[in-house]
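Example record

One chain of 138 residues, shown exactly as stored in the release files.
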Amino acid sequence: METPTRDAIDRSHALGTVKRLVAVYGAFSLAVLVTVVVLAFGQRDVTSFMWGRSGGMAVSAVVAYWLVVRAARGARWAYVRARVIAVVVPVAVVAVDSIPGALPLWFVAAQIAGAVALVPAAFVLNRSDVRAAFPASR
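Predicted structure tokens for this chain:
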């Protein structure tokens, strides 16, 4: 039986942390989507923007989690994409949610709270030891 290398152990530990942070992002995203569904069935005003935004965020959380799982197994392409998502998504969420009057305050607060979970994930994914575990092909 082959013993895992130190790089594989470090990568696994760091990406385990990232998986948990992405799961928090996913939980907030799912909570917003479920709330939108409940409001819609309760005959409350739910805009198509809210549907699209909450659905898109939930899907992006699933994709981000899948990418981190693949990266934990050593897939550099997945690591690179997860790294980009962890940096871009929080910025994009805050930017879009800052449009005055576009979304209710509860919606904005929940989405920003979820996106904030990706900020430490971005720091972990961009640490030099984690980057070194995914060397570029020459």
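Notes: The chain has six helices and no strands.
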